[in-house]
Amino acid sequence: MITQYYIPSKLQGIVKYILERRMDKPGQFTFFPNWECEILLRIEDSKEITITSSDITFESKIMADHFCFITGLTTAPAYVKYEKLNYISVVMNPIALKTLFRIPAHELNNIAIIGKDYIPNLNETEDRLNNLPNFYDKAKWLEENIINWVNESAELKTAIGIYNLLVKISNENYSYSSKQVEEMLGYSKTQSFRIFNEWFGLSISKFQKLMKFINTVEHIHKSNDSLTQIGFDLGYYDQAHFIRIFKEFTGITPKQYLKLKTDTPGIFPI
């Protein structure tokens, strides 16, 4: 698999990065849940791409039939099968769904929608991406184009501030209660629920559980410690708790994943 990345500095807090993935031979991959949403843009020579999951609502073979679709936050693994793969992905924080498309984040949890009803001038986008000479030019053009979709608001600035705080506390090996997070944010329980639901797609407690899982996957890749030590360092009560949370998001145990892992966290061939 050939992958290229570009970080759009003008979209900080909204878009994490833009990437291109290409595979000329048939293949199948598993993608674990992560705290990201995507705009997937099919380049013209992609063929027969199917995405399935027990918990995710996708159109069958959607990337073979449509140029673009938008995915919400996922909480279950997705299985991708393709004959030939060539697409560009705009990988976004969940707050992007509301500020770019006016869609509350929770409405797209575990859902993918066709992009033509939400993205302006999609025909021009398709033409540009299929004709610009290299990935860098395509990514730069997308960055400049997406800037025009941003709905600037006081709530967006608040959401970005909350996002930065959430990233900070998720990197700490301590489990804050929902009440502690609400106190750090300075909002009531009702206000916090609305903000998290609309901008992040999850309640505070569900967000913490997902972030703990994502950190676990990262640690399995970066650390040479045993799984027992990783579970202890990340604050799981015991190995049973570690395995239960991991299986909740993946369907497999940490030990099984250790044998399957590739260079990219959360992605491996079937």
- Count all strands and give the number: 9
| Main structural class | alpha+beta
Tally of DSSP helical segments? 11
**Strand/helix succession:** EEEEEHEEHEHHHHHHHHHE
Radius of gyration: 19 Å
Principal-axes geometry comes out as globular
What fold name stands as the CATH topology of the largest domain? Answer: Jelly Rolls
CATH class term of the largest domain: Mainly Beta
Whole-number average pLDDT? 87
Oligomer: single chain
Please mark out the parts with pLDDT under 50 across 5 or more consecutive residues, or reply none: none
The figure for the number of domains is 2
Please give the share of residues in helix: 40-55%
Report the span from N to C terminus: 14 Å
CATH architecture of the largest domain: Sandwich
- Biggest β-sheet strands, sense, barrel: 9 strands, antiparallel
Task: Kindly estimate the percentage of residues that lie in beta strands according to DSSP.
Answer: 15-25%
Q: Give the CATH H-level superfamily of the largest domain.
A: Jelly Rolls
